[in-house]
Amino acid sequence: MIIRKIAIVFVFFNFMTITYSQKYNAIDSIVLKYPNFGNTEKLAERIQKDFTTEYDKARAIYSWVALNINYDVKKFRNPSNPKTFNSKDKSEVDRQMKNYRDNEIKKAFRNKKGVCEDFSLLYEQIGTLSGLKVKVVIGDAKVDLTDIGRKRLYSNHAWNTVEIDGKSILIDATWGGGYLDYKTETAVKKFTPIYFDVEPKYFYAKHFPESEFKNPKMDKEAYLNGPLIYDAMIEKDCEVFLPKSGIVKVNEGDKILFKIKNLSEFNELSCFDNDDEKLEMFILKEENNVLEFEILCKKKMTQFITFYRNQKALASFKIITK
After folding, report:
1. pLDDT at residue number 252
2. Tell me: the pLDDT tens digits for 208-230?
3. Which of 26, 125, 172, 231 has the least CB density, counted as fewest CB within 10 Å?
4. Which residue segments constitute the domains of the chain, with CATH numbers given?
5. Contact at 8 Å (CB) between 260 and 239?
6. Is the per-residue pLDDT at 289 higher than 70?
7. All residues at 6 or more sequence positions from 122 whose CB lies less than 8 Å from its CB, including other chains
8. What InterPro entries does the entry give (predicted)?
9. What's the pLDDT at 102?
10. How far apart are CA 132 and CA 127, in angstroms?
11. What is the pLDDT of residue 210?
12. pLDDT for residue 256
């Protein structure tokens, strides 16, 4: 949860693991052998000793946080009351907030668990101690089928940006550490490298910064109405060209045209609705690495459909049949 003057609920996203490059293997292998450190200062010293470039340091911190911090399901399910700071002196309020944040970071580091705020604050502190320019970003995250076409934005997640050689890269160490199994209400530890230095087109399909809520430079409607994409979609660099929205309105019996990049293995594709009924797919053509296919809408109802490749979810859409 994020500690602010108002109560904010946090979410944790369910996602899959992927393979990663040899360079990241080398960095992760070093970090995996790290002993327990007494504080973040000692960890930062070790990272600066083992890695020289800003990018490798940023990656090492991501690996350490994702590999070592567990998601705190109890804290997520039972968030504490929001912390308030009262003083006419703004500097005193800032001091109290800093002390509280520092204590929360120490607690997460010591207990090796936390929620998204703890992951992002911990990343920020270790990064700053390592000489990096790191920011914590608060905003909205799309995590569920019902988020497709949602009417409003929420401050329900936290992540980081890091400035590397004058360019800001996007990092979500919480999602890099595993996922929450809602059936068993347990956190599953599974290192997921794709949430380090994510391409903006994918990252912002799943994240919307709070700073953009009121005067957005980003397209809020496109974000809220876009399809829900999953890790396999990012891993394979798949991009949806059609439909233009994640909400598709059609007549019963119509076919919906889809165009998705990098889906050449169409024999490995499948599509199911939210009743687990398999839908028939009609492959039209593949051209310039873009697969065109259609789905027949038989039901007169609102439903969600999800595409899978080798049983891994790619993307979900909300279908409204008249």
Report:
1. 87
2. 999 999 888 899 999 999 999 99
3. 26
4. 22-226 (3.10.620), 232-321 (2.60.40.10)
5. yes
6. yes
7. 40, 65, 69, 105, 108, 109, 114, 173
8. CAP/Cytokinesis_protein, Papain-like_cys_pep_sf, Transglutaminase-like
9. 84
10. 5
11. 96
12. 94
If pLDDT is split at 50, 70 and 90, which confidence band does 84 have? low
Q: Edge-to-edge, what's the strand order for the sheet holding 239-242? A: 239-242, 255-261, 290-296, 281-287
